[in-house]
Amino acid sequence: MSSEKVKNLKKCESCMNRTIAWGLIANLFLAGFKLFVGFLGRSRALIGSGLCNLSDTTSSIAVIIGVKYSKKPADSRYPYGYGKVEFITQILISCFMIIGTLALIFSSFIILAKRVFVVPHMVVFFVALLSALINALLYKFSHCGATELNSPVLKAHAEHNKIDVISSLLVAIAVLAARKGMHWVDPAVAIFESVHVIHASVVILLEGLKGSMDRNMDEEFRDQIKEHILKVDGVKNVNDVKARQTGRAIILDIVLQLDPNISVLQAKMINQKIKSLLRGVNKYIGHIALQVVPME
Questions:
Q1: Any bridge partners for residue 22, and if so which?
Q2: Which of 13, 38, 119, 168 could make a disulfide contact with 46, Cβ separation 3.0–4.6 Å?
Q3: Do 261 and 245 form a contact (C-beta atoms < 8 A)?
């Protein structure tokens, strides 16, 4: 990796660390503020949104721990590195999100069944808009970092922030609807928020489980790898390509065919060309295992 790429990577990681830290502080503030205003302003939807921010706080802590340990270099005990810590953190984030919403679903159903409605205060509306703005900024920076660093846990964290933007906007709509006489909208939005959060949590959970089980990457990506390898002089065929993501890094297992008449030194040089080519094409590719099979 060139010095310029290393410099950009360090800059991006530094920016990401600041974003996660500010996100933790922001979510602590929003969780406390929303729960306080939600109880005083009589908005179950805002209480639900506050619980989402509370689960964001725990997920932010998990992200900090996951990012820290996933960057540890490979050693004799873990020769492929500690990247899978990010998938474990993904699973934890999804569990925090689910736990933080189950209680709200039941209590909101009880309110709808008893039809004991209250009108939320207008301050709830402005708090919801402030929350949407803060979470939109957190999503922007988290999504940027997740894309640049190819980090599964940061992608999950960014999705969590996006959910909070939608959640906060729904709260604002619920306040306006309740003040127009549609009192059932506030607990109904709280239920919808909860179901939305749980659905997103299950998606994140499944992605984390798939990553921890070394799921093969999509066929389109593997076909692109084959095409690049076939451009190297001396490669006759690519029999198989397996690709799995370990944290931020992509690990490749490739079986290819070379001309049986070339020397061992020539085969070794071809292997080096393939590795250099692939790492130049995709900066996230790490370990590459090449198995050479002679042509029949």
A1: none
A2: 38
A3: no
Structure tokens at 294: 């002679």
Helix axes 44-70, 3-40, angle to 10 degrees: 150
242: its two tokens: 């397996």
| 72 close to 81: Cβ distance less than 8 angstroms | yes
Which of 195-209, 216-230, 269-283 is predicted with the least confidence, judged by mean pLDDT? 195-209
C-alpha to C-alpha distance for 256 and 295, rounded to whole angstroms: 9
Q: Which fold has domain 3-212?
A: Alpha-lytic protease prodomain-like (1.20.1510)
CB-based burial label for 225 (10 Å; 0-12, 13-18, 19+): buried
What average pLDDT does this structure show over 85-104?
73
pLDDT at 290: 92
What is the CATH superfamily name and number for domain 219-294? Cation efflux protein, cytoplasmic domain (3.30.70.1350)
Locate all alpha helices (DSSP H) within 214-263, ordered by sequence: 219-230
Q: What are the residues facing 293 on neighbouring strands?
A: 257
Average the pLDDT over each of 61-75, 92-106, 195-209 and give the range with the smallest value.
92-106
